[in-house]
Amino acid sequence: MFPALTAAGLTGVLLLCAGLSSRVGQQRRTGAALAGAGVVFGTTAGFIAAGGERELTAFEAPHVLLACVALLLAAVAGQIVVACYTPAFVGAGTLGVLGSLIVGGGLVAGVSAATTTGIALVVLLVLSTLLPGVSLRLARLPFPHVPADPAEFRQGETPTLDSDVLAETRKADEFLTGLLWATSLAAAACALTLAFTADTWAWSLAATTGLVLLLRSRHLRHTGQRVAVMAGGFAALGVIVVPLLHLLDPLAQLGVAAAIVGVGAPLLTLALRRPVRSLSPYWGRMLDVAEILGALALLPLLAAALGLYGRMLGLGG
Description:
By secondary structure, this protein is an all-alpha fold. 78% of the residues lie in helices and 0% in strands. The chain has helices at 2-24, 28-48, 61-82, 86-109, 113-127, 131-138, 150-153, 163-195, 200-216, 223-245, 250-272, 281-305, 308-315.
């Protein structure tokens, strides 16, 4: 219990120093950095609060739930004390909310961790398509007016973008970056949980999710947003590939690693160069088809990972 109290005390000290630095000293970057460290220590305090002296692999779902709740509370407290860099704290708080809902839902439903994270992985991928609209709402950016009839369309309105609208647009972009990081990290955590199972279908679900995230990253405009989605995609693939490598001999491991680098390097270059050099329509359409097929394959893979096909066959006798 003493380490948890120490981490909680450090969290309070860091948040206090962050508030003094940001509000009194007008050093917002320093204050935000101190508050970010406080969020990390607060999450750690929640994680080890009920864990006692045990190994890292011995922690269970309740400890993760406490960590997610602590992350949410620390992010809210950090935003209150520094009152700046709101998108970063919103992203951290969103990660805490997602983790709390996923872990808490699994505990309430009484299902296994693999079942919970498998369902959550698909839900996160679907909800990620709603993040641009959510970021617009958070930034209080008004949605563009769509003409209802030809008469309104012929009015020839030419709205001007004043400084307030441009500032809200930048804020919405920052919110989107924070939300994408939160969603990608939550998806990577779900894939990590599936990696500890011995189910091939669960591994296939995590790997397919990683590929879909990598393909979806090309739609994003800014580098920070693309890196966020790509990080989740590579993490989902990595946590599945690493356990498989231990089943191979050293020469085969080297070959698989070379293949991963050969596939990952072009994808990384493609995503980072996307705003400068556009894809040809042919390759763009091929990637669109691959992304759609990957997204459509998630539900069948989830059903297989949950064992629904075997239960259906059992019902049929």
